[in-house]
Design goal:
CATH topology of chain A: Ubiquitin-like (UB roll)
Structural class of chain A: mainly beta
Order of helices and strands of chain A: EEHEEE
Number of strands of chain A: 5
Number of strands of chain B: 10
Shape of chain B: globular
Shape of chain A: globular
Radius of gyration of chain A: 11 Å
Strand order of the largest sheet of chain A: 2-1-5-3-4
CATH superfamily of chain A: Beta-grasp domain
Strand content of chain A: 35-45%
CATH class of chain A: Alpha Beta
Helix content of chain B: 25-40%
Distance between the termini of chain B: 59 Å
Number of helices of chain B: 9
Order of helices and strands of chain B: EHEHEHEEEHEHEHEHEHH
Strand order of the largest sheet of chain B: 3-2-1-10-9
Number of helices of chain A: 1
Oligomer: heterodimer
Number of domains of chain A: 1
Largest sheet of chain B: 5 strands, parallel
Structural class of chain B: alpha/beta
CATH architecture of chain A: Roll
Largest interface: A-B, 25 and 37 residues
Strand content of chain B: 15-25%
Chain lengths: 67, 259
């Protein structure tokens, strides 16, 4: 299925994976990222239960330098 | 010691950013030289690997994080970013930026107020990046902000205070609100000048990170901010239009001898 991750289209082999499963498949460590789907914050404690739906738009953000 | 909130005791009146340094090692040394106890950080899209070095180094310093919502142009974007930052950085502090104009990165007063209201209801301690507008400052306090961060000049310009009069009035009208100057400072003398007005602290990034020697500049700002605060507390003399001799006049040799 198709989703958008950080502005880039992605084809996922797994249908409707959990966020946890999607993060693992993309190589992210769950503890050091925060996720929003369709511009809504998704708390970490729902990563294993919240399933990613086709065409959803994900932002996966990490700590970065800032002013 | 000073206290932006009753629960927080701080020694340093300098808050420092973590961006734009030539390397993460120089960033780390500059932060240590600055004596800052609070560092600003952000959230960005990254590949799974990039940014790890920064995150590990900055955690080693053991300082308080003040995450920002830099780049957000709407209240909705800023609120979502703040919620994400709270989870990652494990703090309810947020440097709230809602940008209204891309050219000078001027805060959007309406979006700022809207986002601040939502975030305060969500339990955040909001540090709003605002202009020197007194009425906006009062509205932000009305909705529950405990601290304000007015600009001295647009972010990254290093111009120093554009409107010292407005900053002076803001300080005088809000004597009990912790006020931190955020943005536009380029030189230690700029920082000293706002501290002399009675501002509680200064937040810097570009002025240190873009110096030829960021570590030395961090030390320079540390001293200037301490000097400005000491001067404010000491109570400066009144200025005068005409000269007044500092050396005692009685006993002046050759005084009026030509009469």
């Amino acid at each position: 299925m198709q989703v958008v991750v950080n502005g880039e289209p992605h084809t996922l082999i797994e249908e409707r994976p959990s966020i946890q499963s999607l993060l693992a498949s993309l190589g992210y460590e769950t503890q050091s990222v925060a996720v929003a789907i369709n511009n809504e914050f998704v708390p970490r404690n729902t990563f294993s239960s919240r399933l990613v739906q086709p065409e959803e738009v994900l932002e996966i953000l990490s700590p970065m330098q800032g002013g | 010691m000073w206290s932006p909130f009753p629960s927080e005791q701080l020694t340093s009146r300098l808050l420092i950013g973590t961006a734009l340094y030539p390397s993460v090692e120089i960033m780390q040394q500059a932060i240590i030289a600055s004596g800052a106890e609070i560092v600003t950080v952000s959230l960005r899209r990254q590949t799974a690997e990039s940014g790890k070095a920064f995150w590990e180094l900055i955690q080693e310093l053991g300082l308080r994080f003040l995450p920002n919502t830099a780049g957000c142009k709407t209240a909705k974007e800023a609120v979502t970013t703040a919620l994400m930052a709270r989870e990652i950085f494990n703090t309810s502090w947020i440097k709230l930026e809602v940008i209204g104009d891309e050219w000078n990165l001027q805060p959007d007063p309406f979006g700022l107020l809207e986002a601040a209201k939502t975030l305060i209801a969500e339990g955040f301690e909001v540090f709003p990046y605002t202009t020197d507008d007194l009425v906006l400052a009062q509205r932000l306090l009305d909705i529950g902000c405990n601290i304000l961060m007015p600009w001295a000049a647009p972010i990254g310009t290093g111009r120093g205070p554009s409107n010292p009069y407005a900053l002076k009035i803001l300080r005088e009208r809000l004597p009990n609100t912790p006020l931190i100057i955020d943005a536009g400072i380029g030189l230690p003398s700029h920082a000293a000048s706002v501290m002399e007005m009675g501002y509680d602290a200064v937040l810097l990034n570009s002025a240190v990170a873009l110096a030829k020697n960021p570590v030395q500049m961090a030390e320079g700002f540390k001293q200037a901010i301490e000097a400005g605060r000491l001067a404010y507390e000491a109570g400066p003399m009144q200025t005068r239009d005409l000269a007044s001799p500092s050396t005692p006049v009685p006993g002046t040799p050759f005084w009026h001898q030509e009469k």
